[in-house]
């Protein structure tokens, strides 16, 4: 039987912790994106750059929003779980009358809420600096949820499976960061050499960034086959993470 009160308690606790540590969890990613925008605004004004019939900053702004959400969706659970292991507070969750799958679901729901808070805050600040507005709200929310679930599953997987900060930062530096920078956030695939385009063609995150960017355009076309490709990766990541939480008792203890 699902323990809704326990799930609610974990979600409330995670959100309370998120707002309590707002300097790290909210202000830091917002400040990072503001610096990105200011730097690229300066470059654009000097060189008059444009990509795909829009200004360079308007092109990269949606990618910056989804990139910072993805990074936070990974960092938040992985840092939290590794820290809880080191101070021993994870045992309190494990002995509570709640299954480990319910713990995972609680973390994912809280991260979806946190991801939307970060995205909306960045969007509001960007709107004061550049001309940016959402055209398709439904798919804006849809692709945000997709990104949050994938990177949150990765963060939950790393946080529950490993015990050291070295492993957590290794996954961040050698997987999450390259995945963000090779997703077409800062460039269009049309400007890549043909030999390197396969990196993006087989990267589901590239399609997420592309479709998310299209939510800010008047012409949005839903590509069914590419979205099935995206959802298959999300489903596999969720199943793998759920399996680790369900069967990984010897690792978790």
Task: Name its key features.
mainly alpha; 2% strand; globular; single chain; two-stranded antiparallel ribbon; 253 residues
What's the SSE blueprint?
Elements: H1 4-20, H2 22-47, E1 50-51, E2 54-55, H3 56-87, H4 90-94, H5 100-129, H6 137-161, H7 165-181, H8 198-201, H9 204-214, H10 224-247, H11 249-252
Helix pairs in contact: 1-2, 1-5, 2-3, 2-5, 3-5, 3-6, 3-7, 3-9, 5-6, 6-7, 6-9, 6-10, 9-10
Please outline what is shown here:
The protein is mainly α and 253 residues long. It is 77% helix and 2% strand.
Structure, described:
- The chain has 253 residues and is mainly alpha-helical.
- The chain has one domain (4-252).
- The chain is built from 11 helices and 2 strands, in the order ααββααααααααα.
- It is globular.
- The model has no long low-confidence stretch (mean pLDDT 85).
Anisotropy-based shape: globular
| Secondary-structure class | mainly alpha
Percentage of residues in DSSP E strands: under 5%
Integer-rounded radius of gyration = 19 Å
Number of domains: 1
Biggest sheet: strand arrangement: 1-2
Largest sheet: 2 strands, antiparallel
E-strand count: 2
- Helix and strand string, N-terminal first? HHEEHHHHHHHHH
Mean pLDDT comes to: 85
Unreliable segments of 5+ consecutive residues: none
Helical content stands at over 70%
Number of helices: 11
Distance between the termini: 23 Å
């Amino acid at each position: 039987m699902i323990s809704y009160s326990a799930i609610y308690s974990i979600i409330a606790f995670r959100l309370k912790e998120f707002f309590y540590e707002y300097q790290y969890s909210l202000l830091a990613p917002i400040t990072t994106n503001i610096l990105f925008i200011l730097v690229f605004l300066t470059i654009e004004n000097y060189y008059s750059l444009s990509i795909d019939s829009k200004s360079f900053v308007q092109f990269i702004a949606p990618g910056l929003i989804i990139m910072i959400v993805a990074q936070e969706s990974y960092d938040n659970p992985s840092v939290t779980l590794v820290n809880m292991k080191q101070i021993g507070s994870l045992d309190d969750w494990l002995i509570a009358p709640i299954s480990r799958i319910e713990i995972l679901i609680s973390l994912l729901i809280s991260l979806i809420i946190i991801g939307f808070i970060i995205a909306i805050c960045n969007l509001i600040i960007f709107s004061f600096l550049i001309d940016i507005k959402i055209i398709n709200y439904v798919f804006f929310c849809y692709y945000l949820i997709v990104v949050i679930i994938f990177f949150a599953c990765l963060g939950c997987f790393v946080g529950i499976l490993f015990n050291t900060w070295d492993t957590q930062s290794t996954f961040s530096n050698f997987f999450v960061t390259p995945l963000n920078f090779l997703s077409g956030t800062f460039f269009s695939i049309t400007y890549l050499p043909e030999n390197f385009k396969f990196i993006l063609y087989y990267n589901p995150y590239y399609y997420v960034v592309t479709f998310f960017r299209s939510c800010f355009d008047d012409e949005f076309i839903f590509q069914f086959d590419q979205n099935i490709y995206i959802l298959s990766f999300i489903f596999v990541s969720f199943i793998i993470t759920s399996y680790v939480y369900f069967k990984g008792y010897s690792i978790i203890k």
